[in-house]
Amino acid sequence: MPALGDATRGRVLFGGDYNPEQWPEETWADDMRLMKDAGVTSVTVGVFSWARIEPRPGVRDFGWLDRLMDLLHAHGVGVVLATPTASPPPWMGARHPETLPRDEDGRTVWWGSRQQFCASSPTYRAYAAAITEDLAARYADHPALTMWHINNEYCTHCWCDETARHFRRWLTARYGTVDALNEAWGTAFWSQRYDTWDEVIPPRRAQYIRNPAHLLDFRRFTSDALLECFRAERDIVARHTPRTPVTTNFMPLWSGQDAWAWAAEEDVVSVDVYPDPKDPLGGQYNALIADMTRSQAGGGPWMLMEQAAGAVNWRAVNRPKPAGLNRLLSLQAVARGADAVCYFQWRQSRQGAEKFHSAMLPHAGEQGRTFREVRRIGAELAALGPEVAGTRVAADVAVLHDWHAWWGTEQEGRPSREVAYPEVVRAWHRALWEGGHTTAFAHPEHDLSGYRMVVAPQLYLLSDAAVENLVAYTEGGGTLVCGFWTGVADEDDRIRPGGMDERLRALFGIGTLHEWWPLARGETVTCDGFTGSLWSEELQAGDAEVVAAYRDGELAGLPAVLRRGRAWYVSTLPDPDGLRDLLGRAAAGAGARPVLGGLPPGVEAVRRGGLLFVLNHGREPVEVAVRGAYRDVLTGATVAGGALALERYGVAALREAGRDGSGTAPGYVGRGGSGTA
Ligand code: GAL
Question: 344: Cβ below 6 Å to ligand 1?
């Protein structure tokens, strides 16, 4: 099976989306000059080129793309060639309105932007297959081609009649009979029983709260329907180029795709990440997405397909990245396993919806601060490539995450609309990140035996196989820490008797779960050692140790955190310091150690291959005490017996002096450090 290494060939790829069809061809020569200057090795071409390649149905204009591919090859730039199927040309919607998506109200989603296709439309699929076939046939042997990029950020949802027919086929495959569907969806409630398959429709606008199992299955179906589109195009390109890796870019922690299932179908897992420069914890968010993507890639190298060199254009207030932040986040991705650091996009557009979105080469041009920083990153990645490309990142703590559990929590009639699954996952990852642990992500049914500690921030819905996996992991010597609102429902969103799976209640030593007590936004509850927010639970301990109790409010005196041996249950969301301490204690007991102890706040340490990366996410310079002798492969400087100075947003990539880069990671960088972040 092809892999990212087939495209990188021992380098860390550097580049971005390249949309030269927006520019006169005279500009291309300037692009080549500046790409060389910046150290660009890879560009993604054709993502939104459908109307240019197929200006009217069946017509092909490949001339410009032929010239472009040749030009890039002549300049030593590899091409990640995209199928253009994310943005059908206006002629498709005009001639074939059935290809346009309908929203929950039945309203048409028109052309005029992008991604206006219904994944279930046979007409859309036929056009997409045809253009993919011709593209693959034409460029299969082109020497510039290094990878295929299918579509772009699959995200379109549709509720049309064609989708309804497709949904019924999907449900028939899942349940076999209407009776089984009725049972799984609990349609005895509110007279929702279906008599025939034809009565089943996508969950469109309705009078009041809709059936949550229906909504859940529609999420599953939509992810699968889009995946069918991906597979169809992937199979076409793979037939032409069996040794060229194939990817499609995920959006970060996005609810629309079950990325565990999708990643299993890709040769290369890639993601687009846009931390908000205004967010003081943007570095933690970047780390989370890196950890999740690397884990989807089986712990091996992954591709940062898109990030912004500066500002985006889609937040309420779009701040550029301050000097150094682009470099910091790019090198952080490499430290956490990326073998490709790419951007949206190479040259900033002068027209269209993204003319205020930054690029590697922004409106300010090659003299601008952004381009100068891009050039520096390109040079540093060239130096880092031989040190890290193809290497793995070790993690002995895993965070459990499952899209189906997420979908289950997002239902309309739930105990609290204030609980947002991604926020809870992020809070738990933050606690581990600040505690200095390198984390992986895992699905609750994965083999967890390689991890010393596993945490489940929130898994509302768990299959029997997942429950048994968690129990077996803990009985096998693993440490499990679960957050609130976990193990509540089965795969069909049927509440488990007792409000939590009985095997899990036994595991945590919970006697009775009397009630869920969600907290209002801003409301807190005092517990031993921390403050809780968002949620609390009226629990009675069974044979568990009470680690912390509620100290005020209705639940005063009742257990907040329970522990039975290696299984911990946390029934609220502790404040950041509290959660960090709690997970730190559990990790220490499990033998999971931080990469480096005693780092100043905001300083991150990660080992990859033979290197120890130390990254300062703070806005102030900082010093980290170092014992031993190292060489910083970014600067060539020797770091020996003293302090490692990191400027604001500074990064060091340390190799133990005397090692050739392929050996083990540096042994010890001392505790302590001074300064604030
Ligand atoms: C991504 C998309 C790119 C570009 C970028 C802007 O979602 O794939 O085409 O729109 O966002 O941030």
Answer: yes
Residue 259: phi and psi, rounded to 5, are -70, -20
Alpha carbon of 587 to those of 303, 427, 483, 611, 670: distances in Å?
A: 30, 16, 15, 24, 20
The pLDDT tens digits for 49-81 are 999 999 999 999 999 999 999 999 999 999 999
Ligand 1 center to residue 355 CA distance, Å? 12
Residue of the CA atom closest to atom 5 of ligand 1: 344
Nearest to 434 by CA among 284, 330, 325, 285: 284
The answer to whether 448 and 478 have CB atoms below 8 angstroms apart is yes
Contact residues for 131 (Cβ-Cβ < 8 A; gap 6+): 50, 53, 54, 83, 84, 85
Q: How far apart (Å, rounded) are the C-alpha atoms in residues 21 and 53? A: 10
Tokens encoding 514 = 């009397």
- First-to-last alpha carbon distance for the chain, in angstroms, is 44
* Strand positions, DSSP E, 445-596: 453-456, 479-483, 510-518, 524-527, 530-533, 535-541, 545-549, 559-564, 567-570, 573-574
Is residue 549 within 8 Å of 557, Cβ to Cβ? yes
Instruction: Indicate the top mutation candidate among 254, 345, 354 to test ligand 1's pocket, ranked by most ligand atoms within 8 A of CB.
Output: 354
Average pLDDT, the chain: 95
Give ranges for CATH 2.60.40.1180 in the chain: 603-675
Q: How far is CA 217 from the centre of its chain?
A: 22
> CA 145, CA 6: separation in Å to the nearest integer?
11
What is the reported pTM?
A: 0.96
Listed in order, the ranges of the chain carrying CATH 3.40.50.880 are 397-590
For residue 464, the one-letter residue type is D
| Burial class, 130, CB count within 10 angstroms (exposed 0-12 / middle 13-18 / buried 19+) | middle
Question: CATH class for domain 397-590?
Answer: alpha beta
Using an 8 Å Cβ cutoff, are 15 and 35 in contact? yes
Query: pLDDT tens digits, residue range 323-379?
Result: 999 999 999 999 999 999 999 999 999 999 999 999 999 999 999 999 999 999 999
**Which of 273, 303, 306, 358 should be mutated for ligand 1, with most atoms under 8 A from CB?**
306
For domain 603-675, the CATH superfamily is Golgi alpha-mannosidase II (2.60.40.1180)
Residues 505/524, Cβ–Cβ less than 8 Å: no
Query: Measured between alpha carbons, how far is 341 from 290 in angstroms, rounded to an integer?
Result: 12
